[in-house]
User: What shape does this take?
Amino acid sequence: MAERDAVTSAVQTTRYQAIMHGYPYQLVLTTSSTSYQIVSKPAGAASFSNVGSAVPFTGLQGVALGQAVTLQFNPNGSVQATTGSLIMSMTYKNYSRTIGV
Assistant: This one.
């Protein structure tokens, strides 16, 4: 399932950005739009702000996330789910895939 690969890649990229830049990043996966948004909180910033635009992780109609998830990546490489869980599920037709972070 290509969508799983897209989400997995977004997880890896966001974690790398947090480590490389030295400040927190979040990956926000939204069920209603089946998209993800990367946000960051540079040193001195009061809140997280968008990095680019939201990215749909599917070209297929009918793909669904099991729940909305926000993953926060810290500069030390650690990750936590601030919304949802570190284990996500995606479904498309009769296929279901699990992604563990």
